[in-house]
Target: SDR family oxidoreductase
Amino acid sequence: MTAAPEVVSPKDGGWTGPLQGRRALVTGGASGIGAATVRALAARGAHVVVADIDQAGAAALAAEVGGSSWAVNLLDPAALTESELAQRFDGVDILVNNAGIQTISPIQDFAPEDFRRIITLMLEVPFLLIRAALPQMYERGFGRIINVTSVHGIRASPFKAAYVAAKHGLEGLSKVTALEGGEQGVTSNCVSPGYVRTPLVEKQIKDQALVHGIPEAEVLGRIMLTDSAIKRLVEPEEVGSLVAWLASADAAMVTGSSYGMDGGWSAR
Ligand code: NAD
Model:
């Protein structure tokens, strides 16, 4: 994997690095894995659009990395019209489908509207964004689609019906994108992390303690890290580096794959 190059901000006289001249869009870019990915792509020279419902967070991070922001609720169909998307994706070389949410509940109590919301945000929205990004990537003969899935894209877990279904679906969508785009210079891959130290996981620790009826302090050891070989949470920056490598020229022959970043979780 390529070492992170020195960060050169536009204020210092322009971008440098392996992604210089590339334009990237990261959904859910204001927090956690998305924010680490924004920083990793920008550090390698890309101009990054931080797309997030958190307007202030997206704007602050965009300012930090010299990128731009798109304050958007990806669950609002009015925000994703064909003409809006055509404009947003003009010139985007790298799309990172990362925005995600989680609801923990047994299926019989799972609210159908929660199920739909998760499937929409984490499967239908990536489809719509890939669909919008591809034509102009094909025209330029270059594109990188990187989908942040999860160990739950390959293995299930109780009480996460919508999340597991969405991530399995996104793994499949990513492979189809790879098959259709290969001859036109577009690669498509998934990054599938184990438990990563982010606000989403902090909330999940509380939710899982409730649903399993165990203290929060025990969730990490008894549920989250039981199957991990390296007994710690993944750091968001580690995922960001992997995404940045997949976006680089070094990964030109990598497509249709799913890269674990899970400390051995999926090997068991
Ligand atoms: P996070 O909660 O830190 O960040 C999620 C981001 O998505 C936030 O900035 C949030 O504002 C944004 N978002 C949520 N709903 C949105 C909407 N409707 N429109 C626009 N933006 C919206 O979460 P994270 O842990 O960094 O997760 C990022 C991705 O990584 C998710 O797809 C998640 O499933 C995946 N993932 C996380 C872990 C983990 O352990 N944290 C593990 C595997 C996969």
